[in-house]
Amino acid sequence: MDHYGIWGIIPPLLTIVLAFLTKDVIVSLFLGILSGALIVAGGNPAVALMNLTDLLAGSLADGWNIRIFLFCALLGGLVGMLSKTGAARSFGIWASSKLKTRTGSQFMTFIFGIIIFIDDYFNSMTVGTVMRPITDKTKVSRAKLAYILDSTAAPVCIIAPISSWVVTVMSIVRDAQGFEQLGMTEFEFFIHAIPYNLYALLALLLVLSVIFLKRDFGPMKQSELLAARGQLYNEDLYGPASGSVEEIAASRAKPIDMLFPIIVLIISAIIFFPVVTWLGAIDGETIKTMGEAMSSMSLGKAFNDTDSSMALWYAVIFTITATYIYYLARRLLTLKEGGQALQNGIQSMLPALIILTMAWSIGTIIKSPRADDGLGLGLYLSHVVSDGGFPIGILPAILFVLSAVISFATGTSWGTFGIMIPIAMPIVTGLVSGLGMDQAGLVNASMISISAVIGGAVFGDHASPISDTTILSSTGASCPHLEHVATQMPYAIFVAVCSFIGFTVGGFLLNAIAAWIAALIVFVLGLIVLPKLNFGKKEEH
After folding, report:
1. Where exactly are the transmembrane stretches of this chain (predicted)?
2. 3-class secondary structure per residue, 10-70
3. What is the distance between the alpha carbons of residues 206 and 209, in angstroms, rounded to a whole number?
């Protein structure tokens, strides 16, 4: 038998339970991996520990994994340099020089959040520091500022092709049992799955709706009414404001100093995606030069067939080097300051990097067959669901709810990715195989199911009171944390309900358009009805 049967469910189940109880995803993932190693080792703790250390080392010995690991680390280093120079503040001052209205200041916060897509932590802290004086001046509540910061952090990072979030998801999806059946690269999967990412896109759409249509509801409506009277946050109800971040002087920095590294990263990534494919095509026999490689395939094929980990690794190395030289030439950093900024930025990524390594490891022991010292859970689940006649139509909605609950309880989306994607993919492929669906059905079912996991995970990161980005958004906006949580929660739950309806309809029809029609109907009805409801105390006149 290629699997351990029901025993294989213990590692992910134990991880989920411990994550709920301890709120520590790293420890929960470690113990989940250890439980799997114990099963494989027949209960021998010494052998299990040796196998576990080999598993962790093996995760980083893989060429793809180590490049993604280093990409995320250096992305943190790039953010460290951006933070040190004060370039972001200079850009904000320039961009907001003509902002005079509440709508304008909120929209600029949204745009600024979209621009800084490479890292959610940097997004929340930097945009908050830059925009808070402007939103204060235009009497936008601190709660609204924190909400916009939070809604342009995780939801933006998960749909931006060049971010630590996306490469993490791609790496976990790539290693999941059954992915090879889709017949596409992990980058193609990500691009094609964007329309299915209902929660992230609807969260951004709701931000624009409350900015331009002024459809606030719930406690946020009360906070906005108080802000219009000059009270930017409700200390009486929610306590003092979260500590504001240090504002870095930007006497020498100019707006282009913030845009430069982002533009270089985007352009270099676009260039390296096809270049990696062309370099790989040179075999020294039939194709000997770069020119021959370029003429041997279309540009689109070169993009699709690339090794995205290699392309992104080259891009971030090139960007770090170019940015370091540029900042030295501009005298924004000294050699010592630049090195320290890189080090601080990389250190800030350590918790995420540990979670990423743990996610790879638990995914490996879960999916690997018994012959390869794994539990073969994917094989077992695919057999169970395909033989049991489980309805595939309800699967995306179930995955969305389960991922949302796990992520909300633990406050982390990366840990949820690592737990749920290795479970979801083999279930989808097993169901599709059992139903005899064609390749198009397999691709659509996989995309909407994995997108449901991603959407649920992003909801938890967006809404959970213990999420890092929720806390940092409160801090960046200098808003009482409880006020941010209370005012944002109805918005996040509303988007989650719309997404659930969309995933339910889209799951049965296996169609992104149907999912969007259903979700948007609920979305529009909610914007009409919810602002009319009285969620809190009536305002005194």
Report:
1. 6-22, 29-52, 64-83, 189-213, 258-281, 311-329, 350-368, 388-410, 417-436, 442-460, 491-510, 516-535
2. HHHHHHHHHHHHHCCHHHHHHHHHHHHHHHHCCCCHHHHHHHHHHHHHHHHHCHHHHHHHH
3. 5
DSSP state at residue 197: -
Q: How far apart are CA 298 and CA 295, in angstroms?
A: 7
Residue 540: predicted pLDDT? 40
Rounded CA-CA distance 476/119 in Å is 14
**What is the token pair recorded at 294?**
């370029």
Q: State pTM to two decimals.
A: 0.75
Per-residue pLDDT tens for 407-432? 886 667 877 888 888 888 888 888 88
Query: Which residue, among 159, 164, 156, 157, has the nearest Cα to 192 in the 3D structure?
Result: 159
- DSSP letters of 296-335? TS-HHHHHHTS-HHHHHHHHHHHHHHHHHHHHHHTTSS-H
Q: DSSP letters along 356-418, please?
A: HHHHHHHHHHHHS-GGGTS--HHHHHHHHHHHHT--GGGHHHHHHHHHHHHHHHHS-HHHHHH
Q: For 489, phi and psi rounded to 5 degrees?
A: -55, -45
Hey, what are 507's tokens? Answer: 């799951």
Nearest to 413 by CA among 403, 424, 427: 403
CA 126-132-136 angle, to 5 degrees, is 175
Helix count (H) and strand count (E) of the chain? 27, 0
- Over residues 334-379, the pLDDT tens digits come to 889 889 989 988 887 787 788 778 878 887 887 778 888 888 876 6
Instruction: Say if residues 77 and 265 touch (Cβ distance below 8 Å).
Output: no
Q: 232 is written with which tokens?
A: 């930017």
Distance separating alpha carbons of residues 106 and 208, to the nearest angstrom: 9
Residue 177's closest CA among 351, 405, 12? 12
The CA distances from residue 82 to 98, 115, 337, in Å, are 24, 13, 12
User: Which residue's structure tokens are 């600029």?
Assistant: 108
DSSP per-residue codes, 84-96: HHTHHHHHHHHHT
- Taken in order 274, 280, 282, 285, the sign of the CA dihedral is negative
